[in-house]
Amino acid sequence: MKKVESMNVVPFIDIMLVLLVIVLTTASFVQTSKLPISIPQVDKDSTDSKDVLDKKQVTIAISNKGSFILTIKKSALKI
Predict the structure, then answer these.
(1) Has residue 56 been placed in a domain?
(2) Where are the coiled-coil regions (predicted)?
């Protein structure tokens, strides 16, 4: 009975995994551009119970050309 010789792929897979780890750790991850926004501070004493229950959801979508869409929806907080 003849022994069938085949290529051992385990070392090849080991080398490919090491190369993959090296590429992933040294790759520079691209950051999306950020828009500086100043968020106002709120005093906890000045919040009203009505303000907590009546909330407005504001959605702003900004395109890369500078145009934007502003959507305001009123929603009640369910407790």
Answers:
(1) yes
(2) none
Q: 35 has which bridge partners?
A: none
Instruction: Specify if 36 maps to a domain.
Output: no
pLDDT tens by residue, 34-74? 778 888 787 666 555 555 556 677 888 888 888 888 887 76
In the block, which residue shows the tokens 């520079």? 28
Determine contact, residues 77/55, Cβ cutoff 8 Å. yes
Query: What pLDDT digit, counting tens, does each position of 15-40 carry?
Result: 999 999 998 888 776 666 677 888 87
Tally of CA atoms within 13 A in the half-sphere of 53 that contains its CB: 4
For residue 76, tell me if it sits in a domain.
Answer: yes
